[in-house]
Design goal:
Layout: H1 5-39, H2 48-52, E1 70-72, E2 75-77, H3 79-88, H4 91-102, H5 107-114, H6 118-139, E3 141-142
Antiparallel strand pairs: 1-2, 2-3
Keywords: Sigma factor, Transcription, Transcription regulation
InterPro entries: RNA_pol_sigma-70-like (IPR039425), RNA_pol_sigma-70_dom (IPR014284), RNA_pol_sigma70_r4_t2 (IPR013249), RNA_pol_sigma_r3/r4-like (IPR013324), WH-like_DNA-bd_sf (IPR036388)
GO molecular function: DNA binding; sigma factor activity
Length: 146
């Protein structure tokens, strides 16, 4: 059985349309690649001041001998002192502080993990914060600003 003339014309028209669409998409893709090549600059072609805008240098560990410290309210607080303060907390409160401040968990999430209510977590966390503050105030070295 041979297809009639009208069906054959429809198939030819559709094939021509598909080829046109594919041809136009290929042309658009090549044009986009050409436009990107014009705008792109290699790192070796950048001026020194332009290159410096692309990165930053972290100087935190530059002087590994010196321990970073913070001065608050005339007291010098070092990371070792803060560690001692956290270790001085009871185990249960220490877990809550570490989960909240260092793991970024909410009171609800901590409560679910420890099987206690959210309000209990909040109370223990805030009272632990007060204990830490008191410990740091008592044990921090006096810092004299020149």
């Amino acid at each position: 059985m041979t297809p009639n003339r009208r069906e054959f014309e429809k198939q030819c028209t559709f094939q021509k349309f598909c080829k046109s669409v594919l041809h136009n998409e290929a042309c658009n893709a090549h044009e986009e690649i050409r436009r990107r090549r014009v705008r792109e600059v290699t790192f070796s072609d950048l001026a020194l001041y332009e290159e410096r805008q692309l990165y930053t240098v972290d100087k935190y560990f530059q002087d590994e001998e010196a321990e970073p410290s913070y001065q608050m309210a005339g007291k010098e607080i070092t990371p070792k002192l803060l560690l001692e303060a956290i270790r001085a907390l009871p185990e249960e409160r220490r877990k809550i502080v570490l989960m909240y401040y260092f793991e970024g968990l909410t009171d609800v999430e901590i409560g679910k993990q420890l099987n206690i209510s959210r309000s209990t977590v909040q109370y223990r966390r805030t009272s632990s914060f007060e204990q830490l503050k008191k410990y740091l105030e008592e044990n921090a070295d006096e810092w004299i600003e020149w």
